[in-house]
Amino acid sequence: MHRNTRLAISVSLILGALVVTGCSSDIRKSGYYPLEQELEVIKIGQSTRAQVLSAIGSPSIGSGDVDKELYYVGQRARHFGPFKPQLVDRQIVVVSFDSADRVKNVQVLGLQDGQVVVLSQRVTETISGDFGFFKQLLGNVGNVDASQILGS
Length: 152
Hints:
Radius of gyration: 27 Å
Strand content: 25-35%
Oligomer: single chain
């Protein structure tokens, strides 16, 4: 009996350690925003679009070629087990250009600014209409001819 008790305690400790380490939180980064020293290179009224793209790279939103504003968006979120991620930090850098394609303004926005940036959501219509995956898959079961498979 003494041996079974030690075995049960050992298994419980190992499982407990696995549960605790499996539920530890981690912070994941997504997107990109330029660092402060990279932004210092940009001079309002002097830097061109090409210089901005060369200094801080391609934007998260905006083509870089014709848009009047370039958006660099990055965020950090804490993930803890199966729970919804909690946003820790979000930073949006907006670089605006004038009609001569020179930098008009550089604005850095964060969570503390409380501004919501709405991104449009586009939905691509499927050719199949309202049919689900399995209905499409099973709908072709009787429609295959042996000559189509064999190439005769």
